[in-house]
Amino acid sequence: MKNAPPKATLLEDYRPLPFKINTIHLTFELDDKETLVTAVSQIERERSAPGEPLKLNGERLKLVSLEIDGRALDESDYSYDERFLMIHETPESFELTIKTEINPSANTTLEGLYKSGTIFCTQNEPEGFRRITYFLDRPDIMSVYTTTIIADKNLYPILLSNGNKVESGDLEDGRHWVKWNDPFPKPSYLYALVAGDLGEIRDTFRTISGRDIDLHIFCDKGNESKCEFAMNALKKSMKWDEEVYGLEYDLDIFMIVAVDAFNFGAMENKGLNIFNTSCVLADKSTATDDNFYRVEGVVAHEYFHNWTGNRVTCRDWFQLTLKEGLTVFRDQEFSADMNSRAVKRIEDVESLRAAQFAEDAGPTAHPIKPKSYIEINNFYTATIYDKGAEVIRMIHTMLGKENFRKGIDKYFELYDGQAVTTEDFIHAMEQASGVDLKPFTKWYHQSGTPELDVSYQYDSAKQSLKVDLIQKNPSTADEQEKHPLVFPLACGILSSEGSSITPNVEGARKNGDTVILPVSKESQTFVFENVSSRPTLSVNRGFSAPIKVHVRYEHKDLMFLMAHDHDEFNRWDASQELGIRLMLESLQDQSMKVSEDYLEAYGKVLKNKMLDPGLKALCLTLPTEGTLGQRQSIIDFDGNHHVRETYLSRIATHYQNDFIDLYEELSSNVNYQIDPESIGKRSLRKLCLKYIAQTEKKEALDLCLESFKTASNMTDQYGALRILADYDCEQRKEALEQFYQQWKGEQLVMCKWLTAQASSKAKGALDKTEELTKDVIYDQKIPNLVRALFGGFMQNHVQFHDSKGAGYAFIVEQISELDKINPHVSARLATGFRKFGQLDSNRRDMLRKELDVLLSKPDISPHLYEIVSKCVK
């Protein structure tokens, strides 16, 4: 018998609570297994709710005592169960004192207060605070927090919480205490506590008004030097936010703490950000360029939340994109300003298409403002974050930079210190700009990826170009009926020689040689005037809208755009589209031939000395197997792998000498620097090495091993390791063993070692992944290690989706075991099953059998149940 589905929470059911909590004073007496928490809250009943009982959230708590205004309550005055504490009658205004006992060491869910190694820390977003004490654990309950932490001074010399440190002292029994106060009202999800014996680096930042802010980053002792990059990223973020948005930091101190066991990348708790170590620790020996990028971006993201998320927060969790979409947009723009804007945009869109487009097309599709959820943790998705950021970007494009900034200013003017909705954000933008955005707001409520058919016809007599657009919004798993959406479509036109033509288009706004077409209907026509010669149309420049564009390009048109488009994003996009079309055509006719024209076009990019090296590396990277699969109603995993390998090998053989020459030229740059040009050159060098190794000749694999052994930084060393890991050769075995012996004491580096083997295209990846679960470095309680190993294997399309079903059985078994420890991690892994509907009947039957068994387990978490049940629906 299948389990009854857990009850869903609905947006339409939102109601304000009958009470507000003005202040709360928390006292923690820390102990591994018996931490005592005393919560003293000042509570007022709302006038609109006379006589209603006080219903507090609480999970896995031991209630010790309960008082109102100093009077101990009788058992008849209240009732409680596994989820709630109900106090039947209360005064209009009163002081509530609750004492609870919790066991941090047993808290493997990593929600609430838990132990990470020797460190006490918290994670309360979205609903972790209810595991600390009974409380109105909702984002619209904003309170002023004061925290007193008491702990053994020898074991936990550093005691941290939100806000500013106000008092401290020693106790006679070897313990000490510290009191913190945060003067800004905040919801419980932003509460944080950390206690441990930690290493630390310090710095200061002078704000635009002349205030000096103390900056601290805490980590395990011995890792202090790896925090310097994060500290510099923090200071750059603070400066950027002042310069671009006029937003100054508001407390006297800003702290970051890095912990190993953390479900997310990081958390923006007010003044005390708690980070996964993978988003803080970075030096050239242990971190790749991608790791440095991620540290910089995540530090910026969490800092930017101080205003877009903390000072103005969400009324309820259906509004999650209010803070996350806006803040992702802000961190993307920061990273673009700090690095290569073109490369950043391409990488962001690659990620969106791989994760979010797949989400929109799969069983877990939902709008950026969902209508319901069973487990809110499951809605921390690419849709909420990345598509949400694209929606903000479209508003920025439609309003223009100046009006968008005015809108942000108005947003804080109207709502600072409040918990608000997406409608409130749109209202602020409309008020500041005078633009009616209501037709645009369908993006918040409609799931799915719009598709746009584009055709164009040139009239030489009238010197005009007629562009016809047909918008389609396919049905999704969560809703059938769709409506046309409003979006800005950035377009340019190129002459036959490749020069830009700047046309006039009625109703469109110009931005240099690009025009912004206001798309709003199912069918529209725009006429480009003053077009003196037959042009080639460049559509959706800069990915101005998160849509799928279908243009009637011939292959020669795409080659032309690859060579000449002035928009760097579209130049890359043309290279990807051409590669996808040709590979799928080769697969369909089973010829597996590589077009000579394509080889020629590829060579022009390879030999282009003027192209930015980072952009060149992206343009020369073939579409992934996952990208090919997105174009297929039934995914041909084996065929996609075979055709891609065929193209890689053909290109590698044809341009082997060119790859070797370019590799050697780039190898002369030995100084390791973190800047766009240096990062781009290392990326291009790694791509050359990959193509050299694709021949599988001994001298090519020896070159990879030499590159691995002589590398002076992790980017080069791990790049060579990942290449060798794909081939069953002696060089592979030597590199993997050397890497293990060199880095087995560095957990984050060992994550790379696990992924290299689990994602290997060499045969036997499943057996190796299973073997690695028994390695001493693997710990299923550490999410980073779990994601590295199983996430890596699930991205190994051919071997995870092996036709015999062994990959499915293995992963489902692992997810079932993980669900008992950490439902957040098990549910995240289960999103890898969202391709269920695109499997052939044989694979679908095998996977359904495994997932039905999983769903029937009596102890399956709501987190996992929601994801899996949607996948097989």
What's the topology here?
Blueprint: E1 9-10, E2 19-29, E3 35-45, E4 54-57, E5 62-68, E6 71-72, E7 78-80, E8 84-87, E9 93-102, E10 112-116, E11 119-123, E12 143-152, E13 158-161, E14 164-170, E15 175-186, E16 193-196, E17 199-206, E18 212-219, H1 228-245, E19 253-259, E20 266-267, E21 272-276, H2 289-304, E22 313-314, H3 320-338, H4 341-361, E23 372-373, H5 382-399, H6 401-415, E24 419-420, H7 422-433, H8 442-445, E25 451-459, E26 464-472, E27 487-494, E28 500-501, E29 504-505, E30 509-511, E31 514-519, E32 523-529, E33 536-539, E34 548-551, H9 555-564, H10 568-588, H11 596-606, H12 613-619, H13 625-630, H14 637-654, H15 656-667, H16 676-693, H17 698-710, H18 714-724, H19 730-743, H20 747-758, H21 765-772, H22 783-794, H23 797-800, H24 806-819, H25 823-830, H26 841-855, H27 862-872
Parallel strand pairs: 2-12, 18-19, 19-21, 22-24, 25-34
Antiparallel strand pairs: 1-23, 2-3, 3-9, 4-8, 5-6, 5-9, 7-8, 10-11, 11-16, 12-15, 13-16, 14-15, 17-18, 20-21, 25-26, 26-32, 27-28, 27-31, 27-33, 29-32, 30-31
Helix pairs in contact: 1-2, 2-3, 3-4, 3-5, 4-5, 4-10, 5-6, 6-7, 9-10, 9-11, 10-12, 10-14, 12-16, 15-16, 16-17, 16-18, 17-18, 17-19, 19-20, 20-22, 24-25, 24-26, 25-27, 26-27
